[in-house]
Amino acid sequence: MQLDHLVINTALGMDAAAAIFTGLGFHLTPRGHHSLGSINHLMIDPTSYLELVGVPAIGKQRQEVLDSPLGLSGLVFRTGDAGATYARLAAAGFAPQEPILLERPVTVDGADDVARFRNVRMTAAQFPAGRVYFCQHLTPGLVWRDEWLSHPNGFCGIAGVTVHDPEPEREAARYAALAGGDARRNGGDWYIKEGGFALRITQGARAFASATLLFDDLGDIAARAEASVDAEWQSGVLTIPSLAVTLHCRTK
After folding, report:
1. Same domain, yes or no, for 10 and 82?
2. Engineered SS bond to 89: which of 3, 96, 155, 202, CB 3.0-4.6 Å?
3. Same domain (yes/no): 120, 20
């Protein structure tokens, strides 16, 4: 199991969401425009990233983004071979959608290029908490750029995500089979861990409830959050009410 990225859905509110995260000290990549009709900004760390995704006010609009809940709505695992992942999941009894190609123009060092990805998506019927899929980066050098890795607030990684489900034991087993990990119980919660990332499944109404972010130091993000009219900060927990986002913040 390797995390690729987490998705925060802004729907039609990308401008406001981008301004909030910039004000909180995250370095956002330039706005991207996907071939399927969505727009995005990334907040990149050395191995993964947070993605703000939305749809443009006019023109082609990606329906699955419009249909997804606002806030933390996507959990994306990494794959080196989308076709092989599709075959593995189908053989394991899942019903993955066939790999699709996703593209977006990028400008790097003054030159125009195209970032390309192949995604294998699961259906909402199988994983109702949010969008779950696997991403194969065909052009990783157009995503992980040194100039995008430095964040004024010291953001440096994603340590985990919490999933709520009425039947956490059953759901943990499904996520473990999907991601190729082991689900272990700790109290009333279930955990699937790999490297520095932990997927926590606990009792509750189905949702991606929160994420845990890593920072070099919490001083800057705390000060920015406390000064922001769009965010709340309490004991290391950053809440953005307008996006229904809860982010647990800790040092690396």
Report:
1. yes
2. 96
3. yes
Q: How far apart are CA 76 and CA 141, in angstroms?
A: 19
Same domain (yes/no): 14, 92: yes
Instruction: State how far the Cα of 32 lies from the Cα of 56, in Å rounded to an integer.
Output: 11
- By the 10 Å C-beta count (0-12 exposed, 13-18 middle, 19+ buried), 214 is classed as middle
Residue 143 shares a structural domain with residue 215: no
pLDDT tens digits along 86-134? 999 999 999 999 999 988 888 888 888 999 999 999 998 899 999 999 9
Q: Are strands 49-54 and 3-11 parallel, antiparallel or unpaired?
A: parallel
Question: 11: domain CATH number?
Answer: 3.10.180.10
Q: How many domains does the chain have?
A: 2
Q: How many CB atoms lie within 10 A of CB 65?
A: 24
Q: What does the pLDDT look like over 53-65, one tens digit per residue?
A: 998 877 777 777 7
DSSP state of 146: G
CA 205, CA 192: separation in Å to the nearest integer?
19
135 and 186 share a domain? no
Is the predicted pLDDT of residue 84 greater than 90, yes or no? yes
Range of the domain at 160: 155-251
- Give the residue from 94, 118, 148 where a domain finishes: 148
Assess whether 38 and 9 both reside in one domain: yes
Give the Cα-Cα-Cα angle 125, 202, 243 (nearest 5 degrees).
70
Phi and psi torsions of 95, nearest 5°: -125, 70
Beta strands in the chain, from DSSP E residues, in sequence order? 3-11, 32-33, 39-44, 49-54, 71-78, 100-108, 111-121, 131-137, 155-165, 183-186, 189-194, 197-203, 207-215, 232-234, 237-240, 245-251
